[in-house]
Design goal:
This protein is α+β, with helices and mostly antiparallel strands and about 230 residues long. It contains eight helices and six strands; from the N terminus they run H-H-E-H-H-H-E-E-E-H-E-H-E-H. The strands form two sheets. Strands 1-2-6-5 form a four-stranded antiparallel beta sheet. A hairpin with a 5-residue loop joins strand 3 and strand 4 (about 145-150). The chain is globular and about 55 Å long.
Length: about 230
Amino acid sequence: MFSKKSLKYQKIPLPDNVSISDEEMLSSITQFKEYMLKRHTIRDFSDREVSYDIIKHVIQVAGSAPSGANHQPWHFVAVSNADIKSRIREAAEIEEEKFYSGGGGDEWIKALEPIGTNAKKPHLETAPWLIIIFAERYGVFEDGTKYKNYYVPESVGIATGFLITALHKAGLSVLTHTPNPMNFLTGLCNRPQSNKPVMILTVGHPSSNATVPKVAKIKKSIDQILTVMK
C-alpha cells in the first residue's frame, strides 16, 4: 500500500508458491480453459437472489489484482437496493436513447446490429446485483492532500478481468455495460470526484428463456490472437 510517510523496501519469502508438475500444469489449464469457454454474456436475467457473501468474496478476488505501484486504484459499489437500481436504469436509458438516436455514430451502431442491443435496459432492475466499477484517478490522504495513482486504466482493467472470472467461477452470469457518458453514477453511488465510473456489471442468474447472439460464439482463432517468437 501507499502511505504519506516514508516506506522502505522490505522483502519476504514468497508466501504462496504453487508448484505442480508439467503434466499437472497442462491438465489444470486445459480444464480451466474449458470452464471459461462456458462463460457467456447474457441480457436476460432472473430475479433469483444471490447472497451478499458471494459478492463479497468475488470483490476480494478482484481486489487481489496487481496494480501500478500497488496503489490499487479501484472501488466497487455493489447495489441490490431496488430503488437505486431503478434510478440507475432510468439515468442509463436516457444516455442510451441519445446513443441509439444517432449520438453513437453510424459505424458504431452498425457494429452493434449483430449483438441485438437497444436503448432499453430492463436487466438493470431485474438482476439481483449491479456492481459499479470506479477508477480512482488520484488518492487523498487523511489531511486532504492528493497523491498520484499510476497505470489506473490498466490496473482497473486487470481487476475487472479478475472480477468477471470470479463471478463465472461462482456460477453467475455477467453483462458488462458502459453507458456513455456515465458520470451520473458518481452521484448515485455517493463516490468522490476522484472516482471515475468505468463500467456497470449486471450480475445474477440467467432467466429460463435467456439467449445469446449467434455471432457471440464466433471467436478469433489462436493463430489470429497469438504471435510466437522463439
